[in-house]
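TOKENISE THE FOLD
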Amino acid sequence: MSQEFLSDHDLDLIFRNARSQNKWQDKPVSEVTLRAVYDLLRWGPTSANCSPARFLFVTTPAAKEKLAACVSATNAPKVLSAPVTAIIGYDTKFYDRIPELFPHNPGARDWFAGNAALATETAFRNSSLQGAYLIIAARSLGLDCGPMSGFDADKVNEAFFADGQIKANFICGLGYGDSAGVFPRLPRLSFTDACSIA
């Protein structure tokens, strides 16, 4: 099978020209689009295919108000104006799905079920990966993203995940960005600053 590559246009769309959004156009995002985003991101790899991320798409005015009360003063307007804000959470009992998701080794459930520290570390790390896949998938489908970490996780958990099984990792606005709210492009570390080869 020949090697295939994304075009420069595609790479610009997903990475080089994509920007974190702070303001949003008044343009809705359909449930069909949200389902399409999830249908892409779910194929990204996680350890032992554990897939711990759980996504709550906040879209209604009431839910936006509830979430805005849990975030920093600078992030509240973003939550209220974004067509969608995704709460990327993780299922603390993700391992109960391992027999289904990792059927060639269903006993892998026990790696995590008896080790709370390993389960939490695995859930947080892999839900972070899945949150990144969300951003890539959304950008691939023409959406803009505004990831945020300025929020009170305990308040978000209490407001949206009251049973305690799911915990918030980070939140991300989704929609069609307003370029008036984009900051000037900030620098990134060079290969030599950030990388080494052993």
